[in-house]
Amino acid sequence: MNSKHLSKGARQLSPVRKGKIRLYTNRFCPYCQRVVLILDAKNIPYEIVNINLLNKPDWMYDKSPMGKIPAIEMDNGEVLYESLIIADYLDEKYPQRQLHPKDPLQKAKDQLLLRQFTKVINALLKSIHVGRVDNDEAEVITEGLTTFENELANRSGPFFAGQKPGMLDYMIWPWCERSDVLKMFGRAYILKKDKYKKLMDWRKIMMEDETVKKSCCDVNTHIKYLQSHRAGLPDYDLLCFK
Amino acid sequence: MNSKHLSKGARQLSPVRKGKIRLYTNRFCPYCQRVVLILDAKNIPYEIVNINLLNKPDWMYDKSPMGKIPAIEMDNGEVLYESLIIADYLDEKYPQRQLHPKDPLQKAKDQLLLRQFTKVINALLKSIHVGRVDNDEAEVITEGLTTFENELANRSGPFFAGQKPGMLDYMIWPWCERSDVLKMFGRAYILKKDKYKKLMDWRKIMMEDETVKKSCCDVNTHIKYLQSHRAGLPDYDLLCFK
What we know:
Chains A, B: Keywords: Oxidoreductase, Transferase. Chains A, B: Residues 19-98 form the GST N-terminal domain. Chains A, B: It holds the Pfam family GST_N_3. Chains A, B: Its EC number is 2.5.1.18. Two copies of one chain form a homodimer. The first copy, chain A, is an alpha+beta fold and 242 residues long. Chain A folds into two domains: 21-98 and 232-239, Glutaredoxin, CATH 3.40.30; 104-208, Glutathione S-transferase Yfyf (Class Pi), Chain A, domain 2. Chain A is 47% helix and 7% strand. The first copy, chain A, contains nine helices and four strands. In chain A, strand 1, helix 1 (30-41) and strand 2 form a beta-alpha-beta unit. In chain A, helix 1 packs parallel to helix 3, helix 4 packs antiparallel against helix 5 and helix 5 packs across helix 7 (197-207). Chains A and B meet through helix 3 and helix 4 of A and helix 3 and helix 4 of B.
């Protein structure tokens, strides 16, 4: 998981071993973490190839359009990319511990929530990019979090999926893990924890989930990475054994 | 299908009848047509409520966020929106004539193609909005169509899904039905039919599909509607019996 990120000039990799999945990923990419969570939750055998996003190996461009990650490569050479499409594929292909709700209506409603969460992500990305949270973005974030807070209040819990985390829990997790980085922007941006009590409880028990633990990073590491990223020199290898 | 489009002030509708689905739609909305195609292909009993997009009935805002259409309402009052989420839901809930590929890998690959097609749609929308096809948009459209042309060449055909249209065929159809409206912008914008021979053959047999026939419109009607739309007074009721 914390292996060195490969760059342009890295030598060709050997074919994927029989029965394994190879994940092209990046230690600090939240979209990539989605796929890691699904692979871990379903206990699918996989190997990790970490990619330097600023200077990708040439062969990455043969795997996916513009060398996009996350991408998974199967032992027959087939490749898929786009985190949500990979997640759906893995959940269908590997029936152990089904993560999508079994009921089609509940599954569709969770998909709608995920669409709304995508808007929250985009507002967060924009805020991190400009270094402050503007009103429009604040509104999208507040509205999104309120929807999720109410949703948790209306479900039997403690997870969105019930007694164990499911697809929706894992698909939103990477950004929730990072939510405290907002304090980089000053005290005003720390989430009002009493306003999102249910979400805060959810976040706490997510942290204790065996699957989440495997890829989870503490907030200081996230902030350290983000600062290097904002300085134009992302330190992808922050967690490497040196 | 061609009933009058309801506007602000329209009276409340009665509850959805047992065993039926109510579709809130608009005769000229391609996203809505996606849902019509799935309902028709799977022979699901439904009723149509046409909505005036410029002046929606008040109760539409109680059904979906911002009164978004397409939306479907079930006989228990549950509502779903977003064309692709509705399509997935209907395909899972009603197992007759499964439209998604049975193989999870093929399904995932079709999803990737659909994402690329969304970029083509957005380029088309931008072009129609500004009244010309700029270079960036032309590139996205050409690249997208070439991908789909090659894809058809590599599949056993004649449809993307094989001997009968499947999910991918129907999800891209509404825009392909309208492709000839580009001639509004002059001869230069007519698609180079010899460059997309497979797609043109596909378009021709799609036109003969019983499901497509039910909601299909001729190009002149589409142009007439689009002209009214561009003039700021969309004539949604163009096909109404008056």
